[in-house]
Amino acid sequence: xxxxxxxxxxxxxxxxxxxxxxxxxxxxxxxxxxxxxxxxxxxxxxxxxxxxxxxxxxxxxxxxxxxxxxxxxxxxxxxxxxxxxxxxxxxxxxxxxxxxxxxxxxxxxxxxxxxxxxxxxxxxxxxxxxxxxxxxxxxxxxxxxxxxxxxxxxxxxxxxxxxxxxxxxxxxxxxxxxxxxxxxxxxxxxxxxxxxxxxxxxxxxxxxxxxxxxxxxxxxxxxxxxxxxxxxxxxx
Length: 236
Description:
Layout: E1 6-11, H1 13-17, E2 30-31, E3 34-35, H2 36-39, H3 42-47, H4 49-64, H5 70-78, E4 83-88, H6 94-98, E5 103-105, E6 108-115, E7 122-124, E8 142-146, H7 156-164, E9 168-172, E10 194-197, E11 210-213, H8 217-235
Parallel strand pairs: 1-4, 1-9, 4-5, 9-10, 10-11
Antiparallel strand pairs: 2-3, 6-7, 6-8
Helix pairs in contact: 5-8
């Protein structure tokens, strides 16, 4: 049996938005009526941890009832025919809810917390609420397990390696303007086909073997998945 091709997916806020989650800033620069600087930076945490905790508690509460959409499910179906790795900028767990088996969260995970003393101590958040006084095993306050603005992205090196090993790259629901994640496209090997699924096509550098699909994830990914499976069958 021939080795399965490796598909790497770069996903962003657009695919979660189709499940009803607002995962990033609005056009007015606010995030759920808060300035990003007030809820998503280390300085915000130092200044007002109660506000930051409540902000993410509300995000968790909203995400609890969110369901994966047809786009998430199409990516799961691809695992029947390909080795699929999802690299997401989203902090929700919709890819996991859809059943995708390998997901890298570049910007952290909403339903996890971590120690403010030892960042290697990471815990699941029971339910949706993380409170002042919730501590790690070393007695330090827990904070959201989110990569805030101004913090390094610990999993970037892993993501670069996976993109460089990809046989097919799919970009869905991301504007490709937030770095360092946007720079991952530069790690694609020459000749590897790239598919971009988004009704508002991102302004990425055009290159050979790039196909733009100007549709939402719910329809564009479903159609692309059918095409890729058909192509794989023809190659057997």
